[in-house]
Design brief:
two-stranded parallel sheet; globular; mainly alpha; 5 helices; 4 strands
């Protein structure tokens, strides 16, 4: 997540998360305009003119974004910003494993849970009050 889409913010995120010399495909947004100078291979597609320019396109990220938005608006409905990274991580898992069967994806998810503990405080951001009976 980034707080805004200005050039400094986007390029800081790219520098922090994308290895140098990587190829970055993007639309014509000015926030990406300096990537070649930062040691990236930067290719753009102008969506006012075309959606695919040879091998250059943003279809993969647009597909992912659409699936994420559908999940947030249609399935989960009331998403707190505090948890947004968890919903994105879930969608990344689904997307990366989209060619698996549901059973295989479920098995992989359960294997990933072994040895990991999520506490009430981590989920809610606050400590659980003691119950008295």
């Amino acid at each position: 997540m980034v707080p805004n889409v200005n050039r400094e913010t986007l390029q800081d995120a790219i520098l922090a998360h994308i290895e140098g010399k990587s190829t970055v495909y993007a639309d014509g947004h000015n926030g990406y305009s300096n990537l070649k100078a930062l040691d990236y291979v930067h290719e753009t597609v102008n969506h006012l003119e075309e959606h695919v320019g040879g091998e250059v396109h943003t279809n993969g990220i647009e597909n992912f974004s659409a699936l994420l938005k559908r999940g947030l608006k249609g399935t989960y409905v009331a998403v707190e910003p505090f948890h947004l990274d968890r919903y994105v991580t879930e969608q990344v898992f689904r997307y990366k494993n989209r060619k698996m069967t549901d059973a295989d994806r479920f098995d992989l998810a359960v294997k990933g849970m072994v040895g990991n503990r999520l506490t009430y405080a981590e989920v809610t951001g606050k400590a659980m009050e003691k119950f008295t009976f």
